[in-house]
Write a structure and sequence with these properties.
Radius of gyration: 19 Å
Number of helices: 9
Strand content: 15-25%
Shape: globular
Strand order of the largest sheet: 9-6-1-2-3-10
CATH topology: Nucleotidyltransferase, domain 5
Largest sheet: 6 strands, mixed
Structural class: alpha+beta
Helix content: 25-40%
Number of domains: 1
């Protein structure tokens, strides 16, 4: 009999390579709660949502160990239709001010206060979701995985190229100053591409993350099964997963075989026009979010 733990890890690795959440810049927690001090007794699951869809939270973090510097720089709701295998991806902007542990805080800081469970609860409470499963990816190994597939080729603006060169001061691999079309990026440069700020804030980073995801997916599709399996197992040391075996058996083959991923729909929350953007010495914060409007928009994206 196949070991259930092995099934879980293979399934999670397949999801990670297919839905690879790429980290953005990390914001401060605010410091009024000790890291990891919030105990989560329930996940605040919203009842009555369409059960033909399974929603899973993907978290891209700078460390699996919770500390004062732990952040979920990337948060993606991966919605999978149990009947058709269709996949929909919703990026959550980490600078969103949301209610976490009774106070308005950056959504990205939930992981530092209470780990993946508090991040799940924050998403459920603020966006009206029914998430119980999560996958957490530590991106210290992300650059290595990108190098293993030979990097990616991306179109870069002058500003993006300059920001990547500053973040990766490797003169032997310096990018053209003016940017250009189909510029080769190694693992470290790909990571920087998804994290840098060029004055376009969280939305700009989210766009680069989606572009990096699409480029990675295109590269993975050119690889043979043996190489893909090697990549899957290389991913295991940089993740945590709590999905139960029944869920894995119900969804695993569709995801593992890639059905529905090539045409995955994408969405970003909060929706523009439903918040105000404020800048301070602490960075950008998306305040005054109309969460009712965003719940309606999210339900429309996933369930219609």
């Amino acid at each position: 009999m196949i070991n259930s733990s092995l099934i879980k890890r293979i399934f999670a690795a397949a999801l990670i390579l297919a839905v690879m959440p790429v980290p953005s810049a990390f914001a401060d927690t605010g410091g009024d709660i000790a890291p990891g001090s919030v105990t989560v007794n329930d996940l605040a699951v919203t009842p009555g949502l369409d059960e033909s869809w399974v929603n899973i939270l993907f978290l891209g973090v700078n460390s699996l160990e919770i500390s004062a510097s732990s952040r979920a720089g990337t948060m993606i709701i991966c919605s999978v239709n149990k009947s058709t295998g269709a996949v929909k991806l919703t990026s959550l902007l980490g600078d969103t001010e949301a209610v976490i542990a009774g106070k308005g805080r950056r959504l990205s800081t939930a992981y530092a206060y209470g780990g993946a469970k508090l991040a799940v609860k924050a998403v459920n409470e603020n966006f009206g979701m029914n998430i119980t499963g999560y996958v957490v990816v530590d991106f210290t190994g992300f650059a290595h995985l990108v190098d293993k597939i030979g990097g990616i080729e991306a179109d870069l603006t002058k500003e993006e190229a300059a920001a990547i060169n500053r973040a990766v001061p490797d003169k032997s691999a310096a990018l053209p100053e003016n940017g250009g079309k189909k510029i080769h990026l190694n693992g470290a440069q790909t990571l920087a591409y998804a994290r840098v700020s060029t004055g376009d804030g969280d939305l700009g980073r989210a766009g680069r993350q989606r572009n990096a995801l699409n480029l990675l997916m295109a590269k993975l599709k050119t690889r043979g099964m043996l190489e893909l399996l090697d990549l899957l197992f290389a991913s295991m040391d940089v993740m945590q997963i709590n999905l139960d075996v029944n869920t894995i058996m119900a969804l695993g083959m569709r995801i593992l075989l890639g059905e529905g991923l090539s045409g995955a729909g994408t969405f970003t929350l909060p929706v523009q026009g439903t918040y105000r953007e404020e800048r301070s010495n602490d960075g950008t914060m998306l305040r005054g979010v109309d969460f009712d409007a965003n719940r309606r928009a999210l339900y429309s994206f996933i369930y219609r």
